[in-house]
Amino acid sequence: MSELPDRSILKSAWSGLCPRCGAKTLFEAPARVAIECSQCQLDLGALERGGRFAGMLTALVAVMLILVAYAVEATLRPPLWLQAAFWAPVTVGVVIATLRLFKTVLLYAAYDRREGASE
């Protein structure tokens, strides 16, 4: 199994830490996994398997945000411009954070399986 001494999965997702060396090379864009770690040359593209489910996760997050926005509208009745100014960046931030966490969990699990199989 991989040695991840004091790295939490949340810290790894937020910082984009490579599962092998711990360098901040996991993501090349806010929610796109890099092809390869530039430090240890780990083939991250071969480990990423969450592409199909990323769309489903994004849709689920969107439905939850729509329900929350509807509840805010029903109770507080803020003006439309305020809702747009608030919900646009919140939606982008929540989707990116969720995708980073989801992809990191799947990639780390694939790395652990691969390293466990090679021992």
> How do the helices and strands follow one another from N- to C-terminus?
HEEHHH
**In which range does the helix fraction lie?**
55-70%
- Strand arrangement within the widest β-sheet reads 1-2
Flag low-confidence runs. Answer: none
Percent of residues in β-strands:
under 5%
Oligomeric grouping of the chains: single chain
Q: Please tell me the overall pLDDT.
A: 90
**Main beta sheet strand tally, sense and closure:** 2 strands, antiparallel
- How many beta-strand elements? 2
Secondary-structure-based class equals mainly alpha
Total helix count? 4
What's the N-to-C terminus distance?
Answer: 8 Å
Shape: elongated
Radius of gyration: 18 Å
Describe this structure in words.
By secondary structure, the chain is mainly alpha-helical. The chain is built from four helices and two strands, in the order H-E-E-H-H-H. A two-stranded antiparallel sheet has the order 1-2. The protein is elongated and about 60 Å long. 14% of the residues are buried. The model has no long low-confidence stretch (mean pLDDT 90).
Main features:
two-stranded antiparallel sheet, 119 residues, 4 helices, mainly alpha
